[in-house]
Write a structure and sequence with these properties.
homodimer; 304 residues; alpha/beta; UDP-N-acetylmuramoyl-L-alanine:D-glutamate ligase; 9-stranded mixed sheet; 10 helices
Chain lengths: 304, 304
């Protein structure tokens, strides 16, 4: 089934203890689309870029079944640019540059063909824009998944809460869940956030895995322990892409299938961090993904 | 099968965001013995206390099938005392008082009846004493499990490495695994630590669960998300007690059974943190433990 996703399509410059990149293609919607493209098609992106963007990268996405008709190309303007440097532990980073550029005046307009999409993935972006995208859908999607971050809790909490009230699944990290709920215990935080609207809450804990809360039940998916984490950029978006990709592919939004979706998302994220940027996501095979998922089975399963 | 354990039997005074205690009974061997007593008997403790100790607490342990013959009672001296205050996140704490008292001159002497114990649990204590205990065993135990902490890495690394070289299972936390191995990646850290001797490595990550590494394989057990963590004191020791308790009960030290042991240890630790000190460990039932283990099954299991 089709997926609509809104988010940034951008340039990143990344420095990690393993090396640094020049401007490479990144952005939430880019990672989501690459990741989801291994599960279903079309992936319909809504975004904005300048005419400085690397159009070969859009072609590469199109070749994966990604529809880029909803990506506005602003002539004479520059694409969103972010630059950051990761600390040795890879769990924290300093932002060196944030040039919003075209994002400053982004007003997402959905092509007609997007408006009855069945699965909607709202990448991390201004919640006012996430709401605009939801409001343009002519039929309520079967599932709306929303990613966000602490930045929007700090500067646009009311709008953020309105967006959250409109979605089925919220994905945030543990510190964000605590900030949003005012509760330190993640069990209590989940209850508060369920009250805000989302029936499903995914709490992402990076190298410590992810939790799925729903209706008093909880599921935990570990992160795969890796020899090297090369570049964590985009891991959360790649997770989201695999998560909604699996759900859209199967058309099943039961709790049991959400568990599988979390595992597929985690598997995709584990590939993502093994190389810089989107590189690892460009040459995966179904066999590699299945093998990776089997590593999660071996990692997590036990009999009593 | 029988377990021999060495470690502190002591007084703690604990302050958490939920309240504070006067002197209550604690110590690594106390938590290990309470926890393991739900799995097998006898649990043979080697330790030292002063005559200020609460002898009713020793009686309570004896009533659980714990043998306290190896606990030296030093007349006119005081028991080891530790006092600490947990921060709001419960993941970090300040030590307020450490009075070593009788521990300063502790020289563990094993009663004859301990010397052919099949399972040996070395609680966190001076590695020189851990070695002394191993050397007094007349037959090599079927399994030696050793807990330790960063303090001994800082001040007694050579002795610690000698002790580590003599054991089958090492249990440490993630930061300690990184410090001991000089590797940030836990996968690489495990390889380095296996080279030091232990065929099995358990990395405890507190609220983030625990990893078991063995022979290129890895298993992950989540921590149970709890409404409230009341007092984390002794959680690691309680984990160790449940871990070796299950192994001794079943007499099976295969990797598959070690996975189950990790889950039992995690279940016991999840009880421990729900109340102050050893309180929660004093009134468990087999049914409560089985139900808690089933919560871990629901938490971690998925089908693909």
């Amino acid at each position: 089934m089709s997926i609509v996703t809104v988010g940034t399509v951008a340039f990143d410059a990344i420095e990690t203890p393993f090396g640094k990149t020049d401007k490479i293609v990144g952005g939430a919607a880019t990672y989501i689309a690459w990741s989801a493209s291994y599960f279903t098609k079309p992936i319909n992106i809504v975004s904005i870029i300048g005419d400085d963007f690397d159009m070969n990268e859009l072609e590469a996405l199109k070749n994966r079944g990604v529809n880029t008709d909803g990506i506005e190309i602003r002539t004479g303007e520059k694409s969103f640019f972010w630059s950051g440097k990761y600390h040795n532990d890879m769990n924290s980073r300093d932002t060196l540059v944030t040039d919003l550029n075209v994002l400053l005046s982004f007003n997402p307009i959905l092509p007609e063909s997007y408006k009855n999409g069945e699965y909607l993935m709202l990448g991390n972006i201004d919640p006012a824009l996430q709401i605009k995208v939801i409001e343009q859908m002519t039929t309520r999607p079967k599932l709306i998944v929303m990613d966000t971050m602490n930045f929007w809790m700090d500067i646009a909490l009311d709008t953020l809460k309105k967006a959250i009230s409109m979605v089925d699944v919220l994905t945030i990290n543990d510190e964000e869940a605590r900030q949003l709920s005012g509760q330190y215990s993640l069990v209590k935080a989940a209850k508060v956030i369920h009250e805000m609207g989302p029936k499903f809450l995914v709490i992402k804990k990076g190298e410590h895995g992810a939790l799925l809360f729903h209706n008093g039940e909880v599921f935990f998916a570990p992160a795969l322990p890796l020899e090297d984490v090369f570049d964590p950029t985009g891991a959360g978006d790649t997770f989201a892409g695999g998560f909604i990709g699996h759900l859209a592919k199967t058309g099943d939004i039961s709790f049991d299938n959400m568990k599988r979706a979390i595992i597929y998302g985690s598997a995709m994220a584990s590939f993502c961090v093994e190389k810089f940027g989107t590189e690892a996501l460009k040459s995966l095979t179904q066999e590699a993904i299945d093998n990776r998922v089997n590593e999660f089975v071996k990692l997590a399963h036990f009999s009593v």
